[in-house]
């Protein structure tokens, strides 16, 4: 009889920044004062103490914040010496004619073997077809050809280009960040629900169960506010195409790592052990090609 999967917990989406080394201009927003400080892997270790389905944090995927190559290089170098970080989602200028050479340099540089995916802050682009621009598609093809995946960061009103990207790149593994940022606070989920189902029809696209509490009312959200989104994601993607992510330390704006972990623990109550393993470790391990565990 095959052995049961190891009880692993992977945080497939968190951030780190050192403000003395590299500014984060987006933190100048007055509403972000509480997270306008440096956050390190040791901060994450000391914070992420709450188990999910009996599992404690084993490994993470660190994700870029700013569209700057030096930040990606910093994250890769940090991952090389930090055992908690098993993969990095970096940034590179997909529109650059030299994107192939840039990616080759990153992959060959310090920590380059930890680079598994790229991300662009499409949520901040005003072009409704940014992901479909010829220069962007050339960059995505260069990433695909080097074995990289793509993290899709769009708002709920930008889903059309994410769906078309999935159609045009069936051989590029893609993961939807933060479930496409549904309007939980405004309780406007009907259009988002329909779009998620359309995107989920593309089996090479998976989804992160992350970033939801900051789309809810930061001060008053409960599990009942998150559950309608959870139900849609579970029925659309299934547990084998969902992965747990904290979006820490941004999550601190709405309760933090441990409160989100407790919420996911509650949402998983009716899931089978195999489904829990997929969502908490298996999907992320497969998508980001993380080290196998016994």
TrEMBL record:
It comes from the Bacteria. GO terms for molecular function: hydrolase activity. Residues 250-269 form the Rhodanese domain. The keyword Hydrolase applies. Keywords: Hydrolase. InterPro entries: Amidohydro-rel (IPR006680), Metal_Hydrolase (IPR032466), Metallo-dep_Lactonases (IPR052350), Rhodanese-like_dom (IPR001763). Belongs to the metallo-dependent hydrolases superfamily. This is Amidohydrolase. It comes from Streptomyces sporangiiformans. The lineage of its organism: Bacteria, Bacillati, Actinomycetota, Actinomycetes, Kitasatosporales.
